[in-house]
Amino acid sequence: MAKNKRKEAKRVSAIVVAAGEGRRFGGREPKQWTILCGRPIVYWSVMRFERDPLVDEIVLVVDATHRAKARTLMTNEFTKVGALVSGGKSRAASVRRGLARVAPDAEVILVHDGVRPLFEDDLITRLVAALVTYEAAVPVTLVGETLKRLSGTEVESTVDRKGIATAKTPQAFRAEVIRQAHLQAQKDRFEATDDSVLVERMGLTVGVVLTNAPNIKITLPEDLALAQAIMAAQGVRH
Fold it and tell me: Alpha-carbon distance 154 to 131, whole Å?
């Protein structure tokens, strides 16, 4: 059930989480620092928020060994990065560190994976609008392929894909809700790689914003090649 409506948010803060090791990607440094169209992947992810007029500040969470590189990049290229934070031992811990540096008067907090550089231009607007009704809102893409539940190397059953979607980021939250959700999860020693799950377990409503954009998470080298092709088709040159 939808919760009470409220006025449109006055201040929007974004946490970009780019502190992972990226072991599946390979390479000599974390994947978020791999070059995509002339710039590190994380550059393009942060730029989405830098260019969006609704976003007032950006908190960037990076691995400690790349703080100097991040500081140089962000100081020279961005005006909205208000804090540069070292990541924690888990994604949830990294988000909590980011939350601690968000402006106290933020009404809306967006949480984004630093290796998703391709979400559409109007997504933040639609997510923030959804928070007039819901405590949290996530972008989702409906599953279009047949799903199989496996048992080892065999098919156990076919899953009905009706109403099934994949969650993306950025995810949007009323500030007081995401703060409380992380406090409760930390108290319960509950770990999750998706922030909206923490809101769900509080019994609150998470709204969805449908998207069909190629908002891929760059996890493997072939994802990088796909992102390069998409950006080239969009005319991105740097």
Answer: 42
